[in-house]
Amino acid sequence: GQNIDQPTEMTATEGAIVQINCTYQTSGFNGLFWYQQHAGEAPTFLSYNVLDGLEEKGRFSSFLSRSKGYSYLLLKELQMKDSASYLCAVVDSNYQLIWGAGTKLIIKP
Amino acid sequence: GAGVSQTPSNKVTEKGKYVELRCDPISGHTALYWYRQSLGQGPEFLIYFQGTGAADDSGLPNDRFFAVRPEGSVSTLKIQRTERGDSAVYLCASSPTGGVAEAFFGQGTRLTVV
């Protein structure tokens, strides 16, 4: 079967750095997305990785290792508004998005 | 429009009733997706349209669920004989093409079956 694993919840301090991990087992791989979802709102796009390595975009970076079936989202200089759920989603061989359950990130002052 | 629009934003219905949920995708986007999301879970795929045709409806849970996109833009998700287990947020997303592309999500319709 297809499986995406992420921690259920993480807590971090304002101004700090946090890394949210995602491991996956899917039928084929055509890229990995990270989305941010605030409570009661729609998911919004953060990043897309298809090749191994680190993609940096401002305070957010995303890393992919296809051989390990592993990705992480790195958030720097955390702000209170970063409190949200972070969803990992993999594009499988049928070009469908397989979603993880999301990681709820709580930022404390 | 500027973004993906879903109506209604909230729908409360009685068990056994029929409901329709509407999605207006971003103009020009050929791909349209319906997902269902329960609290604390990621989106669960229901159906994918490429243009007017359902390219993949393998996520529809049973024959009570049906979706159409007759003109390749607006889509309607139809649920017959609703059950309490159908209660969830129904999300619609569109993207410029199929394949691998960033999907833009609507705000969702929160369906509550009582």
Average pLDDT value of chain A?
95
Question: How would you sum up the global shape of chain B?
Answer: globular
> What is the share of helical residues of chain A?
under 10%
Strand content of chain B: over 45%
User: Low-confidence parts of chain A, pLDDT < 50 over ≥5 residues?
Assistant: none
Report the total helices of chain B: 0
Mean pLDDT of chain B: 93
Number of strands of chain B: 11
Describe the structure.
The complex is a heterodimer of chains A (109) and B (114). Chain A is mostly beta strands and 109 residues long. Chain A has strands at residues 3-5, 9-13, 18-25, 32-37, 44-49, 53-57, 60-65, 70-75, 84-91, 97-99, 103-108. In chain A, the strands form two sheets. In chain A, strands 2, 4, 5, 9, 10 and 11 form a six-stranded mixed β-sheet that branches. Chain A has a five-stranded antiparallel β-sheet with strand order 1-3-8-7-6, with no helix packed on it. Chain A is globular. The mean pLDDT of chain A is 95. By secondary structure, chain B is mainly beta. In chain B, 0% of the residues lie in helices and 48% in strands. In chain B, strands 2, 4, 5, 6, 9, 10 and 11 form a seven-stranded mixed β-sheet that branches. Chain B has a four-stranded antiparallel β-sheet with strand order 1-3-8-7, with no helix packed on it. In chain B, strand 9 (88-95) and strand 10 (104-105) form a beta hairpin. Chain B is globular and about 35 Å long. The model of chain B has no long low-confidence stretch (mean pLDDT 93). Classes of the chains: A mainly beta (109), B mainly beta (114). At the A-B interface, strand 5, strand 9 and strand 10 of A face strand 5 and strand 10 of B.
Could you give a short description of this structure?
The complex is a heterodimer of chains A (109) and B (114). With 109 residues, chain A is an all-beta fold. Chain A has strands spanning 3-5, 9-13, 18-25, 32-37, 44-49, 53-57, 60-65, 70-75, 84-91, 97-99, 103-108.
